[in-house]
Design brief:
With 195 residues, this protein is an alpha+beta fold. The protein is 34% helix and 26% strand. The chain is built from 7 helices and 9 strands; from the N terminus they run ββαβαβαβαββαβααβ. It has helices at residues 25-34, 53-60, 78-87, 101-110, 139-149, 157-168, 172-177; strands spanning 9-10, 16-23, 47-49, 70-77, 89-90, 113-121, 127-137, 150-155, 183-184. β6 (113-121) and β7 form a beta hairpin.
Length: 195
C-alpha cells in the first residue's frame, strides 16, 4: 500500500476522531468508567494524543510499561482536533517549513499545540517508511481536550492484550483482523506542519 510520508490515519466519523493514550490504572480506569478525565488528570501538563493504535502499542509496549498499563480510546470532536491542527506548530525546527529558527520559536510560543511525525509501526511494532501524527496539547488546548472535545473514553486494554497474545501465538492474520480500521483523515494540506 502506497502511503504519503505524512498522512493522518485515524478511526473517524463525520463529527469525531479517535485518539489513544495510556495511563496508570489509577487515572485510566476512572476516566473509562466516567467517560471523562478525572480531576486528578493534570490539565496544565503537555499531553500527547495519538490517532494510531499501533503507535500507541509501540509506546506502551502493549500496555505493559509502568504507568501505561491502561490504554484508552478517546473519541474527540473533529472541530476541536481540526482547531488544534490549524494552530499547531512543529515541535522541532524544520527548514522549508519555517523561514528561520527565530520564526519557529515565535510560532512555538504562540500556540499550545505541537506536532511530531514519528515512524508509523507495523503489526510487530517495526518502523514503517511513513509517519504517524502525534499531537501535543498544553495549557488551554489540554483543558479544551479534557473538558470540551472529549465525547467518550473507552478502556481498550483487553483489545491490546488480545492482539498481543495472538501475535505471540503466531496468529498474525487473526491479530490484524482486530485492529481498529484507521483511514486517511481529511485534514487537507498542512504546510505549516510539513504535510
Amino acid at each position: 500500500m502506497h502511503t504519503a510520508p505524512r498522512t493522518i490515519r485515524a478511526v473517524h466519523t463525520d463529527t469525531t476522531l479517535t485518539v489513544y493514550q495510556a495511563y496508570s490504572p489509577a487515572l485510566g480506569l476512572p476516566a473509562a468508567r466516567d467517560g471523562r478525565f478525572p480531576p486528578a488528570w493534570n490539565r496544565e501538563r503537555m499531553t500527547w494524543i495519538k490517532p494510531s493504535f499501533l503507535w500507541m502499542m509501540y509506546r506502551c509496549g502493549w500496555a505493559s510499561k509502568a504507568g501505561q498499563e491502561t490504554v484508552l480510546a478517546i473519541e474527540i470532536t473533529r472541530s476541536g482536533f481540526d482547531e488544534a491542527l490549524r494552530t499547531a506548530c512543529l515541535s522541532h525546527y524544520k527548514p522549508g517549513v519555517h523561514t528561520d529558527r527565530a520564526a519557529w520559536q515565535r510560532s512555538l510560543r504562540a500556540t499550545s499545540a505541537r506536532v511530531q511525525w514519528d515512524p508509523e509501526r507495523d503489526l510487530h511494532l517495526n518502523p514503517l517508511p511513513y509517519r504517524s501524527l502525534q499531537l501535543g496539547l498544553a495549557g488551554p488546548a489540554s483543558r479544551a481536550y479534557a473538558d470540551e472535545w472529549t465525547v467518550s473514553i473507552r478502556d481498550v486494554t483487553p483489545l491490546a492484550r488480545e492482539i498481543r497474545d495472538l501475535l505471540r501465538s503466531g496468529e498474525a492474520p487473526a491479530a490484524r483482523a482486530l485492529l481498529p480500521a484507521e483511514t486517511p483523515y481529511p485534514a487537507g494540506p498542512l504546510p505549516h506542519l510539513g504535510a
